[in-house]
Write the structure tokens for this entry.
Amino acid sequence: MGYTSPALPSMKEDAHFSITEDDESWIGSVMPASALIGSLLAGPLLDTFGRRRTFMFLAIPFMI
């Protein structure tokens, strides 16, 4: 799922990362925004395809 905002202090200390304040705002907001979009899509998918098929379909992006 990537980094979330609590990981920002450790990322700033790591020499391998070079992040700006703009990058920090993206890192902190991508996961909550994705959760919002995913929750809005989950209901219709569950109603249309059922729980089992929906979870099997959604396992593919998680594995990638």
